[in-house]
Amino acid sequence: MSTPESAPAADGAPASEPGTASRHVRLRVDIVLEIDDPAALTAAAERRVDADEFMPAEERAHARTAVQGDPSEALSYLVEPFDLVRELPGVELVQAAWSSEEAEYDPDAMEWDLDGEDDDEEDDDDDENGVNGDRV
Predict the structure, then answer these.
(1) 16 touches 22 (CB < 8 A)
(2) Which pLDDT score is estimated for 108?
């Protein structure tokens, strides 16, 4: 009797052997924020830009203009992914990317169903019909 081969991971890399853990994990987080004081947010972002001793003067001027004109840009200068994992034992941040954008928010719209409740119900139906599992 042969043993099934491990399916490749979503990124194309070989999957971990059974019983072992991958050394790298991609953590995706969606956060919806309501900005109720854009002036305070902008001021905080400007302070962060001004305090960055490694930012060249030309880039600093561009950054200040960006945060003054767009609250989502201000958030990008204030949110630091490293802060999310800094205190976690046994974890080292290898790479991070983030962005922010203004969005029309409707909590009742399907696109904002971040917990995936409706998707789970569809997956359960697929499982019963043999699409995702061995049952037919």
Answers:
(1) yes
(2) 84
Cβ-contact 60, 50 below 8 angstroms: yes
Of residues 3 and 97, the one with the higher pLDDT is 97
- Main-chain phi, psi angles of 20, to 5 degrees: -120, 155
The residue to which tokens 């003067």 are assigned: 57
Cα–Cα distance measured from residue 113 to residue 84, given in angstroms and rounded to the nearest whole number: 23
> Of 86, 117, 115, 79, nearest to 100 (Cα)?
79
What DSSP designation does 4 have? P
Is residue 51 very low, low, confident or very high in pLDDT (cuts 50, 70, 90)? very high
Q: Examine the pLDDT at 121 and tell me if it is beyond 70.
A: no
CA 13 vs CA 22, 61, 96: distances in Å: 11, 41, 19
Task: Please give the model's pTM, rounded to 2 decimal places.
Answer: 0.60
Q: How far is CA 5 from CA 2, 9, 12, 13, 131, in A?
A: 9, 12, 14, 13, 20
Tell which residue, 29, 19, 25, has the closest CA to residue 90: 25
